[in-house]
Design goal:
The protein is α+β, with helices and mostly antiparallel strands and 712 residues long. It has helices at 3-12, 16-21, 60-70, 166-173, 189-197, 202-208, 256-265, 269-279, 335-339, 358-374, 456-464, 467-482, 487-497, 502-512, 556-568, 614-620, 624-635, 647-652, 685-696, 704-707; strands at residues 83-92, 112-120, 135-143, 146-153, 223-224, 229-232, 238-247, 285-294, 320-330, 352-353, 545-549, 572-577, 581-584, 590-593, 595-596, 607-610, 639-643, 670-672, 675-678. It binds CIS-heme D hydroxychlorin gamma-spirolactone. CIS-heme D hydroxychlorin gamma-spirolactone binds next to strand 2, strand 3, strand 4 and helix 10. One of its GO terms (molecular function) is metal ion binding.
Length: 712
């Protein structure tokens, strides 16, 4: 087996791990040394002239330690600065050779290693996870043909059509440069000034203000390659392609009030969620989907398929699910892996090619350029996390932080001394050959007029939303535009979005103190795309979390039964009480408290459960925090369950308009608006099943009508 075959085998066997092993260092049981391997006798005192005297320049250990520390921070990414990464693997379902020659998409037995980095776009590295923003979803496939990066977002379209506007849109949404306010938020004048001046943003703004921009978890988001790429098969036939990631847990979001509170209570909410799920073996899974359009159908659509502000409705161009990615390992070191990983929309492998999408064309320049400054030079591909499994041979030499020790005098091509090695690989042997698209045109700074329609798909999106989703968009406008000081801009926003829907514009106007434009006969676009509504997503209780409120004197067998039934359905739980430590039940059994009211809150859970036990409930009734737990979970439309005396806590809360089991009911299960209750019952089986169903629903939006009355 030659070395290339060996390398290919490593890629096939998913051996990125092994490659990284060469760089992993475990410092356990080791002696402290300098960076040059000299053992250090004392790292607590600097070298001084006398033990009360001045520090000496010759203290090489002090100087090296301090210099390294002074240089520990590298520039953060200009966008997508805050991220979380994980390792895993990808397997294709069936050979895709009809459409692409990409090797990693052929053999279902091959596990291609991947590294994924999820991110927010606008905030700095230390900003909160749950802000309203697009989420990045970048995947590096370490294929046997070299690295392929699918640099995706969780929204299928983009703000702008041409990459030359990227610095403008990013400058407008980042904190304002005079005072660096606000952090990680679009709710300020400069962004909305740019929006009202740039109608192509209309569609993206609708998505940005929808629930998509406040995901419940990285594990519950879709991913979209956004740009139109090209698949090319062995015969050289090309097809337009868009890439999708479909989470097996469905697409779910937080509510805005919860997202904001989480920003304070747990700014690492998404990072922690991903880390914990992987540590617990609840591996996030995403199916890779492709939408394909034949070259001859390029002009068959009422939008330009090269326009990144448009999506291809799944009802028109179905998504073919072609494989699955499983994330099964957390990083060993955040900086070495998550921070130093470098993605590039231009990292493609044979079988995947570009199109003339003007946003994609500009991205092809930006990603490489940005790594040069961020990772300190042209050798960032040698950082372990970025190394390809396929061998690297070329004539590039030197530069900052070069790791490879290139042998021999030849670093040019063609050459005689080395028989022209390293040799180019012909197309037939899978050398990368660009798709031979015919290009013919005048040099011109213009867009095709097929890029001019900025509102039809924004209308389509609005039409596709459920009533609850529409209300959330209106609320989001109230928040975002409420943050705009300039009243004229607020008015211009309302005017602009009256092009999407006049009712929407009227509702925005009402909330932000400006005038609604007169209503006309209504929207001319009546189509919808059910696939974009989260109402129609997968509903699953798996990997959800329930907060269980208990105090001393709780009913042990009741609560243990519920915990076990939840576990059987894949639902996790935590015991929440006023104080951490051990609490005891009526018959003396004890249980360990996981969190107190200061370290957690209802916002950290998908559902709340209150079990029985007279003494426990009497105590809970005296805790405002416990009542707030119920009110807040109710307000956020989460599943709530209560059994026996536990139902009394619900009665005492502010959720009275919901039907709950009355004191005289005997084992009668009452479910209303996602609240599941039962009294005078010892067997928790039926209750637990119904509660699990309620959790699987994710949220019970019908409650929102009366929610305004619930104080939380
Ligand atoms: Fe970008 C990072 C996704 C348009 C320029 N982008 C970046 C990341 C993601 C995306 C997920 C973070 C990667 C990571 O985790 O390290 N970007 C997208 C998508 C786009 C898009 C889906 C729309 C199709 N991006 C886009 C344009 C430009 C850039 C139009 C510039 C012309 N993006 C960058 C960048 C970043 C980046 C400046 C910052 C950090 C980095 O690249 O490594 O080059």
């Amino acid at each position: 087996m030659d070395s290339i075959q060996k390398q290919n085998k490593a890629a096939k066997d998913g051996k990125k791990d092994e490659q990284l092993d060469n760089f992993r260092v475990d410092h356990k049981d080791q002696k402290l040394t300098t960076n040059h391997g000299v053992r250090v006798s004392n790292t607590d005192d600097s070298l001084k002239a006398g033990n009360r005297g001045p520090t000496l320049m010759e203290d090489f250990h002090f100087r090296e330690k301090m210099t390294h520390f002074d240089h520990e921070r590298i520039p953060e990414r200009v966008v997508h600065a805050r991220g979380s990464g994980a390792h895993g693997y990808f397997q294709v379902y069936e050979p895709m050779n009809e459409f692409t020659k990409a090797k990693f998409l052929q053999d279902p037995s091959v596990k291609t290693p991947v590294f994924v980095r999820f991110s927010t776009v606008v905030g700095s590295r230390g900003s909160a996870d749950t802000v309203r923003d697009v989420r990045g979803f970048a995947t590096k496939f370490y294929t046997e043909d070299g690295n392929y990066d699918l640099v995706a977002n969780n929204i299928p379209i983009f703000f702008i059509q041409d990459a030359i506007k990227f610095p403008d849109v990013v400058h407008s949404i980042k904190p304002e440069p005079n005072n660096e306010i606000p952090q990680a938020s679009a709710a300020h004048d400069t962004f909305w000034d740019f929006v009202v001046s740039t109608p192509e943003l209309a569609h993206m703004v609708m998505w940005l203000l929808s629930d998509r921009a406040i995901p419940r978890s990285f594990r519950m988001m879709e991913g979209f390659g956004v740009n139109t790429f090209r698949f090319v098969n062995e015969q050289g036939k090309g097809r337009f392609v868009k890439f999708h990631w479909k989470p097996l847990l469905g697409v779910h979001s937080l509510v805005w009030d919860e997202a904001q509170k989480l920003g304070g209570k747990d700014p690492d909410f998404h990072r922690r969620d991903l880390w914990r799920a992987i540590e617990m073996g609840e591996y996030p899974e995403f199916e890779l989907g492709v939408q394909m359009i034949e070259e001859e159908d390029e002009f068959e659509f009422d939008f330009d398929i090269l326009d990144a502000t448009k999506f291809w409705p799944e009802e028109i161009v179905p998504v073919k699910r072609i494989g699955k990615m499983t994330l099964n390992r957390n990083v060993d070191n955040f900086f070495a892996e998550t921070e130093q990983v470098a993605f590039h929309a231009g990292h493609v492998v044979p079988g995947i090619d570009f199109t003339n999408d003007p946003l994609l064309q500009g991205r092809l320049f930006s990603y490489l350029d940005t790594q040069l400054i961020r990772l300190g030079g042209p050798n960032f591909h040698e950082i372990p996390i970025n190394r390809s499994l396929a061998q690297v041979h070329n004539n590039q030499r030197d530069g900052y932080h070069r790791m490879t020790i290139d042998k021999g005098p030849v670093s040019y091509s063609p050459n005689f001394l080395q028989s022209n090695a390293p040799h180019p690989t012909p197309d037939e042997e899978n050398g990368y050959v660009h798709y031979t698209e015919k290009v013919d045109g005048r040099k011109i700074r213009e867009r095709n007029k097929s890029f001019n329609d900025h509102y039809s798909q924004a209308k389509l999106f609005w039409n596709s939303m459920s009533d609850a989703e529409k209300q959330h968009i209106v609320d989001a406008f109230h928040f975002e535009i409420g943050g705009v000081k300039n009243k004229q801009i607020r008015q211009l926003v309302v005017n602009m979005f009256s092009n999407v829907n006049e009712n929407l514009a009227a509702q925005i106007a009402e909330g932000v103190g400006v005038t609604a434009p007169p209503l006309s006969s209504g929207s001319d676009v009546t189509d919808s795309s059910p696939a974009v509504s989260q109402e129609n997503t997968v509903k699953s209780p798996q990997t959800r979390w329930v907060g269980i409120l208990v105090e001393n004197g709780f009913n042990y067998s009741e609560i243990i039964q519920v915990i076990e039934e939840l576990k059987k359905a894949g639902v996790n739980s935590e015991i929440v009480s006023k104080y951490q430590g051990t609490i005891t039940c009526s018959n003396g059994n004890a249980i360990e408290v996981d969190k107190n009211y200061l370290t957690t809150g209802s916002i950290m859970y998908d559902a709340v459960y209150v079990g029985g036990g007279q003494q426990s409930i009497e105590t809970l009734l005296t805790h405002g925090d416990a009542l707030n737990f119920i009110n807040e979970a109710y307000k956020h439309c989460k599943a709530i369950g209560a059994t026996n005396e536990g139902v009394d806590l619900l009665v005492a809360s502010q959720i009275q308009s919901t039907k709950i089991a009355g004191p005289d009911t005997e084992g009668e299960l009452v479910t209303h608006l996602g609240v599941v209750t039962i009294r005078n019952e010892n067997d928790m089986t039926n209750f637990s099943q119904e509660f699990v169903n309620s959790i699987a629903e994710h949220r019970h939006w019908t409650r929102e009508v009366e929610n305004e009355m619930v104080p939380a």
